Give the backbone structure.
Amino acid sequence: MTAPAYPDVFRGALLNAGSDPIGGEAGIYLPPAELFRRFQETKLVFATGEGDELNLRDDQISQASMRDWCVFNIEIRIARKVGHEPLDPRSLDQALDALEQPSAVDPGELARCSARVQRELASKLADAEAAIARGDGDGARAQLKAIDAQYGGLAAPAILDLDARIAARP
């Protein structure tokens, strides 16, 4: 099976006045591995008004989830004298300038972080595989559902394989 080719359309995103976390039920589900690797190289600029307390808090949660999932190319811009409203021209210019700056992702840090995520995923998949081996199909399915909720597209091929193995058992 050939992996889908994803066009190189976006190299960055400006998140204005709020953002969502990624990874799991509390956030946006992760895409397939290749597309997610490209997202990890994407520049994200968070630009929120200093008076927009709710979205500043949401931005912090989103930024923490990005770091947890090895998305490090983040710039944060706080728009002075702005609440929950579109950016004023000066703040928009500053945010767009930040978006245009070259990426500064440390390849070693990204590799270490990605390896951690892969180890965690492999451990959870091994637990599900052990449940299948001992004949606990219901327990294995519950584990697969939890893995899918947390890892989404990163785990999809393994989840499908293990689910097929559960279905093939007598």
